[in-house]
Amino acid sequence: MRIRISSIWWLVLSSCTIQVYEPEKMLPVEEYSEWTTHATYVSQTANSVTLDVELILSDKFDRNNEFTFLGSSDFNISGSDGQLTISDFKTATVANAGPGSSVILMDLSGDYSSTDPYNNRAKMFHKYFEDHNGSSQFLTGGFAKRGLLPTPVYYLSEQFQTAEDQILLPFFNMSVQTGGQNNLYDALNSGISKLTNTTGAVRHLIVLTHSNDGGSSSAASSIIAAAKTASVNIDIVALGNDLNPAPLAAIACQSGGLFAFCQTGEEMIAVTGRLYRMLYGTTGTCQFRLIYKPTSGTVASGDQITGSINVSESVFGKSLNPTYFSVSVP
Amino acid sequence: MKKLLTIVFLTICTSVLAQRLGVGITLQYFPFKQVTLDAADIVPGYSYAVYKAGNNNWKLWSAGQSFVVGGVFQLNRQRFYFTAEPSLELNTYNYSMTYQTGPGVGEKIVFQVLYLQALCPIIAGYQFHSSGIFRYSFYAGVSPSTSFHIEARFTQNADQTQYDRYTPYDMNGILYSGKPWWNGIAGFGIHVASIAKIEIRYLHRLDSPGDQYKATFSSLGVGLTYYFPIKLLKKTIYRED
Questions:
Q1: I need a surface site. Which of A180, B38, B63, B83 has the fewest CB within 10 A?
Q2: CA–CA dist A36, A24 (Å, integer)
């Protein structure tokens, strides 16, 4: 069995190399995609481990998110240094963690002329606000240092909102007030403070950024610690090639959040379009019970089982991204 | 009682039939148009975009054009005339909005709605002056209209990649809808003997396509009506000898 020493993987794609941190926490950026939401240890014997893995497919395939037409034979599953077999498979609709609070922050530094010249970012967060549909509360703002708006974060309202009505037009106006330097870390600190003591089962700090931090007074380590203390998941959507995704991925994953690295505006649209479903929504899932058998040796406590799942190309007539999972043996 | 009603009915019919009944065709062209929206920011119900509106001025051609061809049935009584014009109209409306993309800058999107519509203006006119073979009149009326084909698109010279970012159907329920509507009509006509009428006509849509935003549509154009030289109970009417 392969024990994963470093949690940093490198994926070599056809056209570029992307540094990926904890691939099971990476949001796929393709419009048609699949991703793992849960992977949990169930039990073990001397030479096998039982796992439960849950998978979501993008609703491009099924508007009702049911996917009841899928069977276990429609999936290809592979494990690192071992064999994974499906012992049970079903589709089921599951509710996410329930209503919660989210702070949505948009990077307003510099300009978006190369990454999002047509301001699709505002449209996609509009969708996010609509998806909320009153079930969760949210607070929105933008950040930049020495930009056009106050620092560290310009919030559109003092209080959390449950409906988009009051903030939608200010949000669109804010989204184009770009200029100044990136102060991401200071903005994250501010967002965590806003989420502290909020009600609801889940707290998400959602950030769209397109550049590297340009001189915040806060440090990444303190942000992660503060997020853990306040039980805030930091979900980061990084846009474009002008930033270093590794520290952003580290903040997101270590806080328990998700990370998406979108190199194009289209990828950003795909990710933000399903963000609410990922964080709060009720959705259809594919649920697997897997049996893992190592190639050699026995199962030991602390072993890390990693694998990937992929829907067969013949099912939808197109190739989907593989989705990854990782489970520690207790 | 029956006799009385019959007498009244025949009296009315006789008085109407004693006047001129003109039958003809009309061609109209409206190159001046105005489209207004009563909000500065438009949030369409079918879109995640938010548009900046405000380009509400009268325009020659760039706000759309329309062509009307129809029949004319006109009753004359002294200085007054009453006309029904069952017509077909090819009608376009253009309205430009902006989607903000940066500080103080935005992308201009020109939404165009094309109607093929049927309408039947019913107007009453008053001939207030005559000179030689010409008679001059003002008229007003209403026109029920219904569309049998609606096409929403961007103007033909628009950037074709705009279809990737916006959809012309964003304006459904704002700049157009499938429900019938009424126009108000007013105009000025110059009658040439009993042969033709040249007119300047103003149309104003009396209701808005949707409830979310109040949109108004106005048109100004010219028309030419030709009356067929047929004798339909001809009787001399106001200054026509």
A1: B38
A2: 7
- Placement of tokens 């009584």 in the chain: B77
Nearest-Cα residue of chain A relative to residue B46: A127
ipTM: 0.78
CB–CB of B101/A176 below 8 Å? yes
* Helix H or strand E encompassing A17: strand A17-21
How far apart (Å, rounded) are the C-alpha atoms in residues A96 and B6? Answer: 79
Spatial separation of the C-alpha atoms in residues A235 and A8, rounded to whole Å: 18
Question: In this structure, how many other beta carbons lie within 10 angstroms of the beta carbon of residue A100?
Answer: 21
Query: What is the side-by-side order of every strand in the sheet holding A304-311?
Result: A34-44, A49-57, A283-294, A82-94, A75-79, A304-311, A323-328
Q: Which residues contact A38 (CB under 8 A, 6 or more apart)?
A: A52, A53, A54
Q: Tell me the per-residue pLDDT of A109-167, one tens digit each, with 9 for 90 and over.
A: 999 988 999 999 999 899 888 887 667 888 999 999 988 899 899 999 989 988 887 88
Strand, coil or helix: what is B197?
A: strand
Which H helix or E strand runs over B113?
strand B105-119
Single pTM value for the model: 0.81
pLDDT over threshold 50, residue B241: no
Decide if A168 and B50 are in contact by the 8 Å CB cutoff.
yes
CA dist., res. A249 & res. A320, Å (int): 22
Instruction: Write down the residue that tokens 């240890």 correspond to.
Output: A41
Which 3 state secondary structure label does DSSP give A255?
A: coil
Give residues with Cβ within 8 angstroms of A204, minimum separation 6. A100, A101, A102, A103, A232, A233, A234, A235, A257, A279
Query: What is the bridge-based pairing of β-strands A233-239 and B80-84?
Result: unpaired
Q: What are A50's two structure tokens?
A: 């039982």
**Contact across the interface for A119 and B100, Cβ inside 8 Å:** yes
CA A213-A218-A223 angle, to 5 degrees, is 95
Check CB contact of B39 with chain A, cutoff 8 Å.
Answer: no
- The four Cα atoms B126, B129, B131, B136 give a dihedral, to 10 degrees, of -40
- Mode of pairing for the β-strands spanning B59-60 and B41-42: unpaired
Helix (H) or strand (E) holding A162: none
The encoded tokens of residue A131 equal 């998806």
